[in-house]
Structure formats: structure tokens, C-alpha cells
Amino acid sequence: MRALLAKIPLLAAATGIQQLEGGLTNTNYRVDTQNGTYFMRVSHPSTHLLGIDRKNEKVNTERAHQAGVGPAVIDFLPAEKVLVIEWINAKTIHAADFQSQPGLLVDVAAALRKLHAGPAFQGEFNFPAVRQKYLDIVLQNGFYLPADYVKIQPLVLELERALAVDPEHKVPCNNDLLAENFMLAEDKIWIIDYEYAGQNEPSFEIGNLVSESGLSESQLTTLCGAYWQGYAPAKIARARAWSMIARFGWVMWASIQEAVSPIDFDFRGWGLKKWNSVLPELTGEPYLKVLEALKNNC
Known about the structure:
- The chain is of the alpha+beta class.
- The chain folds into two domains: about 1-85, Phosphorylase Kinase, domain 1 (2-Layer Sandwich); about 90-295, Alpha-Beta Complex (Aminoglycoside 3'-phosphotransferase, Chain: A, domain 2), CATH 3.90.1200.
- The protein is about 50% helix and about 15% strand.
- The radius of gyration is 19 Å and the shape is globular.
- The protein starts with a helix and ends with a helix.
């Protein structure tokens, strides 16, 4: 750590270093100096298998800051995979907060609209291509694969084909919006962690947030209504489709991480939670309703 800090002028004379909890693809630190406090993330080499481009992450973090929702970049060491950003005095949001504070969804929608209206991000994030790449890696290396996963994939491909018929205009998206990537200050919601950021359609952003936070149908309706500024059944169906596709795809992310990550975390359990959540939807009435709505654009 001291060797790394010595390469960052602002942190070279750090007065305190504290490793923080969280982070499934990196190790995070709070670094205190006489001039202020900073957040430093050190990424693990194995993340190249996940398609994370650290240079894009740095650029897109800067552009999210320009949009008014992301922290400022302080320094970046590409060879060491180190990113230093400003420290945010705010509270991390958790999925349970969306249940206890319904108004948060409206505030989150406003923050998303601000991000999506900001400067275009570097690179594109095409989740169907990403999830197929993840599956190929798992199959080629013999990593863990849930029973019937490949058998279920044609249902997901059908959803992806229906979505591709009338794609949305691509905007700068975070693409990894679990609840903990939002932080709440007194008068502002921050959006952090731009590892997977790139141009994408906003309904993926919304659907993936629904997926990560386990939002209900009524909460999805609230979120879509706030984002699209009115009741939009077609957008609700689109986000629900992306929610299914996201959960299906991230299962393979978990299988890769279980095999290669040095982080002590139950990646298989994390992936199986998504698999057990999406499987009944893909094989039941929710899938049929969403597919019909997509095909009828309603």
C-alpha cells in the first residue's frame, strides 16, 4: 500500500489508511491526509475476464462527475489498476431502504435522468453480448453451471430478439446499479462505481436496478413513472424483460468470479440467488406476459 501511495502525490503523505467493506471486483480504501480524505480502489487482475476496461471506467467516472451525479477523479494509475476519487460524505443506500422509504425511488429516477442526460460515455455496454461471452468462458473452462441453464437460454434469446426490434436511443449508463451504488446526502443522490459504464438503453439501467434490488411490480411502476414522467406500460414491460435477462446473465458472472477471484465471498450463493429468482419467471406466466407486451409494444 505504501508503495502504491508513493506513486500518487496527493496521497504520498497519508496519515491513515482504512480498508473498507464491499467490492466484489476490487479492494477499497479510505485514505486520510492532512489535506482531506480520499477513496482509493485497487482492482484485481482477474477482472479482465469480466470485460471491465479500467481506462473506460476512469473516463466515464469523470463524465458522470460532469453530469453532476458522480464523484471527481483525483488520480489514476492504469498499470497498477488504481483509481482515486473524492471522498463523499453520504450514506450508502441498501435495497431495504427502497422498502422503508418509497420516495427514494422517485429521487433515484431523477438522478438517473441526470446521468443519462450527461456527456456520452466511452464505449458501449451490450448486455446480450456480455452475457454470451460470460457463458462461453464458463463452458470453455468447466466452471460451475446450474442445471438446465443452457436449456433455458432460448427463452432469454427470444426476449432479446423482441427487445432488438425497436431499440431505445442509447444514453450514458452505469449498468451495475445495485442499491449500494447509490449514496444519499442531505440534498443529493450520488451514483458511484462505473466499472461497467457505457452507452446503453435506459430500460436496461432500470431493469437491472429492479433485478439487483428485488423491486416489486408496483415499485417498478413507480420507478418507470418517475423516470419517463408518466405511466408507460411498454417501458415497464421492457424493464421487466431486461430484469430477467440481467439476472440470467449475471449468474455466469458469479461462476467466473467463483473460479478466479481472490476475494473471500460466496459467489456461487450470490449467483444461485439470481438463478432461483429468475427461473420461475422465465418458465412461467410472467415471461409470457412480458414477451407478449414486447411484441405488441404495449
